């Protein structure tokens, strides 16, 4: 019997994006237990996790609203500024980087990475749908 929510992380797509988007100078290490605010500027940012596990907590009440297991990227939705709504808590040692959204989309466009980005987006949408059905 196939479970409705069986899906796997599109690691090849994530890696294709990371190969073009990532810059070692932007990668920041975090120790287990570190808290990081994602709202630090006027421009929307994209967040890329290279290593480790972290929680996303809602700023308003510290409720856990998601978890991140690297490799993964999020925050590139032009219509939702997630950085102003959540912060990160490192569950393990983590390495991540912040990429300005304008730079993110320029690199995706220049390197024709729309298909890998679509697959990552569908994966994230599937996770959100699954979590929403559990809560309903």
What is the gist of this entry?
By secondary structure, this protein is of the alpha+beta class. It has helices spanning 11-21, 101-110, 114-135, and strands at 28-30, 35-37, 45-51, 53-58, 64-69, 72-74, 86-90, 94-100. The protein is built from three helices and eight strands; from the N terminus they run αββββββββαα.
Write a concise keyword list for the protein shown above.
136 residues; alpha+beta; 4-stranded antiparallel β-sheet; 3 helices
Through-space gap between termini: 23 Å
Report the β-strand fraction as a percent range: 25-35%
What profile does the largest beta sheet have? 4 strands, antiparallel
Shape: globular
Rg for CA atoms: 15 Å
* Number of helical segments with 4 or more residues: 3
Order of helices and strands: HEEEEEEEEHH
Which consecutive residue ranges, at least 5 long each, have pLDDT under 50?
Answer: none
Which structural class is indicated by helix and strand composition? alpha+beta
| Biggest sheet, spatial arrangement of strands | 1-8-3-6
> Helix fraction?
25-40%
Number of strands: 8
Instruction: Estimate the mean pLDDT confidence.
Output: 87
